[in-house]
Amino acid sequence: MNGSVSTYRETAPSNGYEFSSGAGYDLPEYPFEAPPELQGGPLVRHPVVIVGGGITGLTLACSLARYGVAAVLIDEDNTVGVKGASSRGICYTQKSLEIFERLGIYERVVAKGVQWSVGRTFAGKDEVFSFDLKQQGNFHLSRQPPFLNIQQFYIEGYLVERIRTLGHAELRWQNRLVAFEQNDTCATLTVETPAGRYRIEAEHVVDATGAHSPLRQWLQVPFDTRRGDDRWCIADVRFTKHPPVERHTWIEAPFNENRAVWQHLMADEVWRIDYQMAPDSDPEAVSRESAVRSRLARHFGADVEIEIVWVGPYTYRSECVHAMRHGRVFLMGDAAKVMSPFGARGGNSGVADADNLAWKLAAVLKGQADPSLLTSYNEERIEAARQNVCVTNRTARFLRPADGIERTFRQATIGLARQYPFARSLINTGRMAVANPYSHSSACTYRAGGGAGLSVQNVRFAWADGTRGCVNDLLDWAAGSLLVLVFGDLSAAALQRLRRLCLDAPVRSVQVLGPDATAQALEHVRDPQGHLQGACHVFGHAWALLRPDGYLAATGESVDAQLVSAIERCLGLRGETP
Amino acid sequence: MKLAIHFQDADAFYEQLLDAHEGLSREDSELLNARLILLLANQVGDSRVLSECIEAAREIPTPAAE
């Protein structure tokens, strides 16, 4: 490992969103407390130090706290969100909401947020097509809705409060990282605070500092980048009489000089209206209040009363590091990759990054897994990062086609889509974020037709006493251990093997039965409609090895050596790649 | 990707294609071609075949302008 020392100059702005006008939000402020190191305490080596208290860093801290693992989180600011600015992320996927349930903040998120499932896409004055996510796929099987819109800082605020309840994590506000080095023994961080500078040591460092990561610069992490001339301007507004609770997107809006427009509801009856501007347009000119008001008047009519909450011009770029781990440093969230906002893949992938690393770090720090398990963090999340960057780049190219043949193809697509359903699949106003599959992970055991590397939805089943439960309840019960779900009846030998496994390894097992079958294992649940089995991507007599992050490590048929080796691989105990 | 003849009536298709473009401006012709490519691509569907067709079309050298 190479050491690297540098200094970090100024507080970086956030991803191009900057305050322009409007009332903004009142964000909570957290008090600065002088850290123990500045009160004469010794130089402490922490197992985990998280740099950055955005949605990603806080998700990780909360998830580690849930596993009982101590962490120190430092953040240069004293609040959630971006001071004086608005919310960045607004849309959270079913998978993120499932994670928030495990973390214990979902009830607050769902109470505050707005659910939606209907999306309509327009070109010119006509609707080109619409969809209802509740009617699509298996979205309706989870306890969580397909999507929920809420300002990002609410989630961050709930996480802060949840972490305080759980304990284990220490949140240090107004603590800014100013220098960093690492070697074979540990990493050393120099932190600046209003009360002075101090140093801490860490075994593992998480860079969740966002799109302008100083750590990434210091470590000279290689990355790919792409930027274009597409310009947008957000108006977060309140109406006296508001539009329907649906996601509306215009590819070509007649009221916006035939450029794209997004219309989306958030909490507090605030609507996010996102207008595409002319290429390379001046951010200051497009965000002037008079310009914003006339844009809104063209859109909603001159007589509609509108309160402007926030206005923010932005541009985007795509960026993806080549590797998300550098020595003791794990990059996550925007520090690892940034992308256009289309499809809500930024915030949601940050949450998934954190959820992926949390259980692995916990298992390693508790001595249940080999440190080599941590290499699967990069394998799995770099695959997701690349996929998300690729998908969002495609959307950006549809929304801002190059002049010439790219525009011609888009025109052809829109024309066809008005008449023929097949062409609607080419209309790309954003592909909503998904739980990315992992196809090349050393922690997963792959076999043809198996479910390894896929996410398991938070579907319902019945506990032995008939009350309803969900996959998240099983994961809670497993408390950070791997979970073997065995479907159907078991031979005496298989039952014996399972019991031994649960004694010898950090594994818990549950038998999953139909409505009437006789239970053989003490720990059993019933899956009368087969939703649990379907969510685990298995059929008939089978087992599914479920990780604490709700992903399948492997699936198989009989309880034999294959299950044992899959467990070992999922704990980093087998060197070879599957 | 099929490289052997698969047309039922190659000449008739070619004629119909030219007729469709007759009298169109360059822009409208390009738009017609784009629509046609998308319609035909959906008939094919198969990702590998589509990818091979795109590559095959790219590989034919463009003759130098006269």
Q: Which labels suit this protein?
A:
heterodimer, A: 578 residues, alpha+beta, FAD/NAD(P)-binding domain, Glutaredoxin, 8-stranded mixed β-sheet, 15 helices, 26 strands, globular, disordered N terminus, B: 66 residues, mainly alpha
Q: How does this model look, in words?
A:
- The complex is a heterodimer of chains A (578) and B (66).
- Chain A is α+β, with helices and mostly antiparallel strands and 578 residues long.
- Chain A has two domains: 5-13 and 41-386, FAD/NAD(P)-binding domain, CATH 3.50.50; 460-570, Glutaredoxin (3-Layer(aba) Sandwich), CATH 3.40.30.
- Chain A contains 15 helices and 26 strands.
- In chain A, strands 1, 2, 8, 9, 10, 11, 17 and 18 form an eight-stranded mixed beta sheet that branches. Chain A has an eight-stranded mixed beta sheet with strand order 6-5-13-14-15-12-16-19, with helices on both faces. A seven-stranded mixed beta sheet of chain A has the order 21-20-24-23-22-25-26, sandwiched between helices.
- In chain A, a hairpin with a 2-residue loop joins strand 10 and strand 11.
- The longest helix of chain A is centred in the last third of the chain and has 25 residues, at 375-399.
- Chain A is globular, with a radius of gyration of 25 Å.
- Chain A starts with 44 loop residues before the first strand and ends in an 8-residue tail after the last helix.
- The relative contact order of chain A is 0.13.
- With 66 residues, chain B is mostly helical.
- Chain B has three helices and no strands.
- Chain B has helices at 10-21, 26-44, 47-59.
- The relative contact order of chain B is 0.09.
- The mean pLDDT of chain B is 95.
- The rounded Rg of chain B comes to 14 Å
Low-confidence stretches of chain B: none
Oligomer: heterodimer
Number of helices of chain A: 15
CATH C-level of the largest domain in chain A: Alpha Beta
Domain count of chain A: the total is 2
Shape of chain A: globular
| Low-confidence spans of chain A | 1-21
Distance between the termini of chain B: 32 Å
| Proportion in helices of chain A | 25-40%
Mean pLDDT of chain B: 95
Helix/strand class of chain B: mainly alpha
Work out the strand percent of chain A: 25-35%
**Structural classification of chain A:** alpha+beta
The total beta strand count of chain A reads 26
The number of E-state strands of chain B comes to 0
Number of helices of chain B: 3
